[in-house]
Amino acid sequence: MWIRQGIEAIIGLSSGITVAGGLFAFIIGLGVVSDFADRTHTGRHILLYEDCIGLGGIVGSTWFLFGIRIPGGGWILPIFGILSGIFVGCWSMALAEILNVFPIFIRRLKIVKAIPWLILGLAIGKGLGAILYFAKGW
Fold first, then answer.
1. Are residues 77 and 15 in the same domain?
2. What does 86-125 look like in DSSP terms, one character per residue?
3. pLDDT, tens digit (0-9, with 9 covering 90-100), for 84-119
4. CA-based angle 15:17:22, to the nearest 5?
5. Residue 93 and residue 110 in one domain
6. 0.70 exceeded by pTM
7. Are 94 and 31 in contact (CB under 8 A)?
8. CA 118, 121, 123: angle at the middle one, nearest 5?
C-alpha cells in the first residue's frame, strides 16, 4: 500500500511539474513578459517578472490544493478579477500574434505530412487519459 501511494505521489508530482513548466514556458514563449517589459521600459527587471509568474502559479496552486481561505475576499475579489482579465487579455493578444508563426515553423521543419498523425496521437492520448480518469473515479 505504501509503495503504491509513493508511486502515485511521484507520478502526480512529475505530471504537475511537467504541466507547470509547459505553461510557464508557453507564457514566456508567447512574449507576454517581454512585451510588458518593452512597453514599460523595464527590461532590466525581466527576471523579476518571470519569478513573479512562477511564484503566482505556485501560490495559486497551493491555495487551490489545500483550500486556503483568503481574508478580506469580499474586496480582494474584484481587484483579482480585473487583474486576471488584464492578464488573460494580454495573453490572448500575444497568442493571436504568434499564431502566424506555426505555418512557417511547420514548413521549415518539413513535418507537413506528419501533422495529421501528430494531431491523431494527441487526440488519442487525451481521449485515453480522460477514459482512464473517469473510469477509475479519481
1. yes
2. HHHHHHHHHHHHHTTHHHHHHHHHT-GGGHHHHHHHHHHH
3. 888 777 777 777 666 666 677 777 777 778 878 877
4. 95
5. no
6. no
7. yes
8. 110
